[in-house]
Amino acid sequence: MSLPPPLSPTNPYAAPVARVADYQECQWVLADRVIRLVAKIVDGMIFGLVPGIAICAAIVLSVMSDTQSQGIVAVVLGLIGIGAFLFVAIYNMLLLHRHGQTIGKRLFNIRILRSDGSHCDLLRVIFARWLPVTLLGVIPLIGSVVSLVDPLMIFRNDQRCWHDLLADTIVVKS
User: What are phi and psi of 37, to 5 degrees?
Assistant: First the structure.
C-alpha cells in the first residue's frame, strides 16, 4: 500500500493532491446488432445471387436451346457463375484485408477491429473468426447448435458473438 502524498507546506489543511491518470474512454462505438444482421444478410445475398443468376440463366438457356448446344451453354454459364462467385469472394477478401469490411459491412459503415482497436489482419479473420465456426457448423447435430448459438451470443452486453471471442475482434461503426 502506498503512502498518501505529503501535505502542502503552505496550507496544512488543504486537500491532498494525488496524481490520477485520466481515464480515456474507448473511441470506438460498437455496431448495432440490427446493422450487423442486415450487413450479414446483404453479404449472403451477394454471395448467393451472383452465382445464382448465372446458374438460373444456364438452366433457362439450356432449356431454350437445341439439344446439341444445351451442354455447352450450361457449362459456360456454370463457369461464369463460379467465376462471379470467386470474384465476389476475392473482392471481399481484399476489402477485409485493407479496411476490415465486407461488401455488406462497407455499405453500412461498420468494420472489424481487434478488441484493442488495432487493425485485424486477413489471416485472423479467416482462420480464427470464420473457419472454426464454419467447420463446427458442418458437424451433424453439433453444427446446428453452434450455428444457432454463435449469432445469438450477440445479445451479450459486449455484443460479441462466439466467432468474435475466438478471434478477439469487435465490430464497430466506421
Answer: -65, -45
Least confident of 69-78, 146-155, 157-166: 69-78
pLDDT (mean) for 25-43: 88
Q: Are strands 110-114 and 169-173 parallel, antiparallel or unpaired?
A: antiparallel
Of residues 93, 96, 101, the one with CA closest to residue 174: 101
Reported as a pLDDT band with limits 50, 70 and 90, residue 19 is low
Residue found under cell 476490415: 100
Average pLDDT over residues 8-32: 71
Q: Say what the pTM is.
A: 0.72
Q: Give residue 14's pLDDT.
A: 72
Distance (Å) of CA 36 to CA 5, 19, 168: 49, 41, 17
Which residues have a Cβ under 8 Å from the Cβ of 170 and sit 6 or more positions away? 28, 30, 112, 113, 114, 115, 158, 159, 160, 164
Q: C-alpha distances in angstroms, 146 versus 70, 112, 143, 160, 169?
A: 42, 21, 5, 15, 19
CA separation for the pair 94, 127 (Å, rounded): 16
Strand partners, 172: 30, 111
